[in-house]
Amino acid sequence: MNLPIIQLDLLRHGATEQGHTLRGHIDDALTAEGLAQMQASIDTHSNQNWHVIVSSPLLRCAYFAAPLAQRLACPYIEVEALKEMYFGEWEGKTTQSIYEQSPEELANFWQCPTQYSAPQGERLIDFQTRVLNALKKLIEQMSMQHQSRALVVTHGGVIKLLRCLAQQRPLDELLSMQAPLGELVTLQLSTQDDQLMIQEMYQ
Q1: How confident is the model at residue 1, as a pLDDT?
Q2: Are 34 and 60 in contact (CB under 8 A)?
Q3: Are strands 184-192 and 3-12 parallel, antiparallel or unpaired?
Q4: pLDDT at residue number 202
Q5: How far is CA 101 from the centre of its chain?
Q6: Which of 11, 25, 91, 126 is most open to solvent, judged by the fewest CB atoms within 10 Å of its CB?
Q7: What percent of the chain clears pLDDT 70, i.e. is strictly above it?
Q8: Using an 8 Å Cβ cutoff, are 125 and 114 in contact?
């Protein structure tokens, strides 16, 4: 079944208390700076007529998304599958500390994430599958509700993955994709023969 085109404005969370670590599923909070980064992106966005606001359940996303939905009187849902990639034994560690302990493992992951993952961490193929399945369900639900625009508050890994797919770049380039803290990226999503089609919109 082919579904109508859905526009998703993807907002990455801002700076957090644990700063320059691989946070993954660690539920650290936003700093005041992080909140301000996200609010600035929303304030400068030309069209805020979202039909629904969707968020990762992790605090660094939901703490901003839920009050925003309330202020805008907009439906709000949290989607577990839009959490960041899980980094296993590297959760909460800086890349410098990982490099000092396991330089080869870190280099393999950074250069070829399709083949290497963090120890006990989530494989990229599994991360991709859960994110894409979640988005397919989201656009199906939105289509049923005659909704065409959503704000999705999520994580750097999710945004990098979707930008990589939209630009049809090799997935091994995922970690070099840009997804600055607190910034917003717009995508158009649709399905064709049950395949998710992703296009990046440049403003």
Answers
A1: 59
A2: yes
A3: antiparallel
A4: 73
A5: 28
A6: 126
A7: 98
A8: yes
